[in-house]
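Margin note from the TA: students keep mixing up input and output lines. Inputs are the sequences; the output is the structure of the whole complex. Example:
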Amino acid sequence: MTDGFREPFAIPRFALPALVARIGARLPQWPHAVALAAGLNVAVRLKLLPEESLAPLENRRFLIDVTDTGGRAAFTFRDGRFRPLFSIPETPDLAFRANLSTFMQLAARQEDPDTLFFNRALSIEGDTELGLVVKNMLDAVEWPNFPGMSLSRR
Amino acid sequence: MPQYRIPELVCPAGGLPALRAAVDNGADTVYFGYRNDTNARNFAGLNFDRKAMVEGIGHAHKHGRRALLAINTFPQAGREAEWRAAIDGAADLGVDAVILADVGLLDYASRRHPDLRLHLSVQGSATSHEAINFAHREFGIRRAVLPRVLTLAQVESVIRNTPVEIEVFCFGSLCVMNEGRCWLSSYATGESPNTVGACSPARFVKWERKPGQMDTRLNGILIDRRGDGEPAGYPTLCKGRFEVGGATYYALEEPASLNALELLPEIARIGVAAVKVEGRQRSPAYVAQVTRVMRAALDALGEGPERFTVRPDWRAELGKVSEGSQVTLGAYNRPWR
């Protein structure tokens, strides 16, 4: 890093070829949901997600749609745990759609969801208030420090 | 003639990670608010409870930065006690100043907590030195945040005629800028930023995706329709597109962010005490990106205003995070008054 203000490590914006989505959409979707729910449950167990933010998620159905891989993960939150849904709901309460690079940038906190929404890389459908709860809940989490993913200059 | 000095950089925090991002990336000061309607950024899951505030203020002070608490909505009739309790809490927490908009609250704070430093919020809508000097004389305010409706020449005139420090916005979302008085959102939802702390409360907002387009509805009212890939803004009435005289366009305001980077030498020269970044509703990533650019720019200014130039990578970084993916100098360089 030479100029003192850019991230030392950055996920570029990219889109996978359409063929990937055509193949991906034919694969079973439940492994994504299982992995995602397991990851979120780790955060619940570590008490990283505040209880007052989790309460509004109870029994709501969420869909993560990765448009360029054709991967979709649906899950719900019930009795204190995230649970994968084995069939994709027709009308989820909340759906986030974006391509893989966008979701990676979000996960690494490299880009702000509003930025991605403004430039149309991220779409949010369904219950907007629920979306805001989820966004703000994830923003408020103080993740343990992972090397290379810090927001600070050093 | 005020002495040339580098303005203080004031950055937003909607939560602890954002506050840390501001401090770690070079903010001199952070501002934040309670998780209730004393706060003009009262969105679900955002903002600070008392425990987070204690931690946030501690983090700022440990690094030699200042922490400001915004109590910048107007108390609702019969519920004044909630807003007063927020001020009492701020005094207890040891914040460096509270940012207030309502004259009743300024009066309460100045009497009840004479040692508490008071800033006049942008929501107080004070655009003249007379209004600012009134608040100084009556309530002892030490700083005023100017609404984003003045040209730089007007800002300079205010500074020359008041002993109060002046803070101006240098980056962030713009609206119709009827600050502290906007009721536009109420026409669609019955709620407005100055009453419940949010314009276009999220529960009234609906995005509908259809092939090739996205509709934005506010309480059922269609306020915008965008083609795929067309940049978007916040779902507020003022940034909707409406049919006026047979043409459909942004009749009130285009979605855009203020970016005053190129005006920083002039802002410093006229004696602005502090520059503010908007965006407590945004994520730690935004706070880190914008703070980093503004810090680099202010540091460059410190090396001599005559040599200051806006670097293309600063411009690109700020353009990327802007509302509607476009920036403007807003009122600062408006030729008309």
